[in-house]
Amino acid sequence: MNFPKIISILLLSAFGSVTLRAQEAAKPDPTVIVKDCIEAMGGETFLRSITTLYTDIKTETEGREVNYITREMLPNKGSFKIVYKGRTVFQNWFDGKKAFETVNGAVKKADLAEFKDKFDRKNIFNELDWIRPELWTLKFLNEEKLGLKDCYKIKATRKSGLVELLYFDKETKLLQRDDKVEDVNKNSFSTTIYLNYQKYSGLTFASEMKIGNKNSLQALNVVELKINSDVSETDFKP
Question: What's the pLDDT at 104?
């Protein structure tokens, strides 16, 4: 039996295991990355003090300027409407259990499948949900450049199976892009890009966004954002 050869193989195997463990230990903790983002947004205590959020966002649809108005209330209630020239052309409501929407001007029950990601939400801000292991599993993937920004890339997997790829700016700590994986086999993503962060009553929030897919992105601009104001229970019922 060739003992020196066997010993060499065992030593190489041991060194390889130690190196692999060292590399794993050197990877940034994805939970810490998200917590750093929360701190940059205003801090966990402050974000948890926000029980309602109102946003008025201007965009363009089919060549027409419209406004998206969203109202949210802890833990998972939400309403959304599209306003064109002062007239509401679409609206939906979710009160935490039931959903409704307007169809040709009439209010009807909405397909709850469209609101499936809201049922287990515990917070208005996704960042606060991402750090809850009973809701999401986080995995650090790598560092990647988005334009001129060096970013941490994290894979977030929801208990329901939804996968999101999150990119956090290493310098500002803030979320730069969120890719929702629609079809892994087809490499299909629904993307949100976050730009030009501003302060709104102490909350650091992206004043500009782009949403869509790699072939077509729609620009959105925040017109108004209100914290703990202009939102009530009646906003979630038709």
Answer: 86
Which element (helix H / strand E) includes 72?
strand 64-73
- Quick one: pLDDT at residue 20? 45
Q: Which one-letter amino acid corresponds to residue 180?
A: K
β partners of residue 82: 68, 90
- Spell out the SS3 assignment of 103-120: ECCEEEECCHHHHHHHCC
Record the tokens describing residue 8, joined without a space: 């060499």
Please check whether residue 101 is in contact with residue 121, taking contact to mean a CB–CB distance below 8 angstroms. Answer: no
Three-class SS state of 187: coil
Token couple for 141: 């993937």
Residue 18 three-state SS: helix
What percentage of the chain exceeds 90 in pLDDT? 77
Q: Residue 37: phi, psi to the nearest 5?
A: -65, -45
Give the amino acid at 185.
N
CB 75 within 8 A of CB 96: yes
How confident is the model over 71-81, as pLDDT tens digits? 999 999 999 99
CA atoms within 13 A on the CB side of 173: 17
H or E segment to which residue 181 belongs: strand 175-183
